[in-house]
TrEMBL record:
Domain of life: Bacteria
One Pfam family of this chain: GyrI-like
InterPro entries tied to this protein: AraC_E-bd (IPR010499), GyrI-like (IPR029442), Homeodomain-like_sf (IPR009057), HTH_AraC (IPR018060), Reg_factor_effector_dom_sf (IPR011256), SmbC-like (IPR050908), Tscrpt_reg_AraC-type_HTH (IPR020449)
Residues covered by the HTH araC/xylS-type domain: 14-112
Record keywords, A-Z: DNA-binding, Transcription, Transcription regulation
Full protein name: Transcriptional regulator, AraC family
The keyword Transcription regulation is annotated on this UniProt entry: yes
GO molecular function: DNA-binding transcription factor activity; sequence-specific DNA binding
């Protein structure tokens, strides 16, 4: 274990937590928080989520609720004002969220003067969960279709790219299927998620009918995680990869998106046998 690097990551996350606590009444920008932590803006949200076991916005909601609980017990402020300070537009929405977290509606909580829960930093589970290897790879050209929205629906883009590849005689046993994922689904609204699906090619392609464009992916050092199982379970691999593994490794992420390479065909492989390589770009 690289204890020095792990401590460094935790201290940088601690700076973010301190900043959040001091600026809870403000609109909190992920890029600003990445700068506070001196992490890559491209990957800050994944690192934070991996280390904290919650997203930045979940932390903000948790901290605001913690503060609201203190306001309910220690002040005589109107619940309407407390709800607004916690970021809610109505008492009803605040009451539902508060009861979900604290087990009682705000008025009841205030009347029975419950103790304020202790806010603690989740510990990391550092055990080895996946095989990871660091590789230097050459850049690859990818003929791809862009996808916007839920990553679980990216199959639509793969189908479109596959039809185009078959049409152009590119879909064979050696064809390498790649997915690029630009955003952390735990930190970005579903409808704003950006990804691309396609195949490795040896020259540039463009086809407006199919929405095909060519871009470069990879190049340089990458940490490669091997995941076996359903695509729906890849999220836990990302969380461990960007949390426990990265902080232990002594590595820093580069300003490039992660991508996945699919080693077998989901149409002919049972989900439990699907093998996916997740590539994390490194400096």
């Amino acid at each position: 274990m690289n204890k020095h690097m792990q401590d460094s990551y935790l201290k940088r996350i601690e700076r973010v937590l301190a900043y959040l606590s001091d600026h809870l009444d403000e609109d909190l920008d992920l890029d600003k928080l990445a700068d506070v932590a001196c992490f890559s803006r491209c990957h800050f949200h994944r690192i934070y989520h991996g280390l904290m076991n919650e997203t930045v916005m979940q932390s903000v909601r948790r901290l605001r609720m913690h503060r609201a609980a203190g306001d309910l017990i220690r002040t005589s402020s109107e619940i309407t004002a407390i709800a607004k300070r916690a970021g809610y537009g109505s008492v009803e929405a605040f009451s539902r969220a508060f009861k979900s977290s604290y087990g009682a509606a705000p008025a009841s909580y205030r009347s029975i003067r419950q103790d304020i829960p202790v806010v603690s930093i989740p510990t990391m589970e550092l055990k080895k969960m996946f095989d990871v290897e660091i590789k230097s790879i050459d850049p690859m050209k990818l003929a791809c279709v862009d996808h916007h929205g839920d990553y679980m629906q990216v199959g639509k883009a793969f189908e479109k790219a596959g039809i185009w590849a078959a049409k152009n005689g590119l879909l064979n046993q050696t064809a390498k299927s790649i997915g690029i994922y630009y955003d952390d689904p735990a930190s970005v609204e579903t409808e704003k998620l950006r990804s691309a699906a396609g195949f490795v090619v040896d020259k540039d392609y463009s086809d407006e009918e199919y929405g095909i464009s060519t871009r470069s992916v990879g190049g340089g050092r990458h940490a490669v995680l091997i995941h076996k199982g359903p695509y729906a379970e890849l999220g836990k691999a990302y969380q461990w990869f960007f949390g426990a593994w990265l902080s232990e490794s002594g590595e820093e992420t580069a300003e490039a998106p992660c991508f996945e390479c699919y080693l077998n065909d989901p149409k002919t492989t049972v989900p439990s046998d699907l093998v996916t390589e997740i590539y994390m770009p490194l400096k």
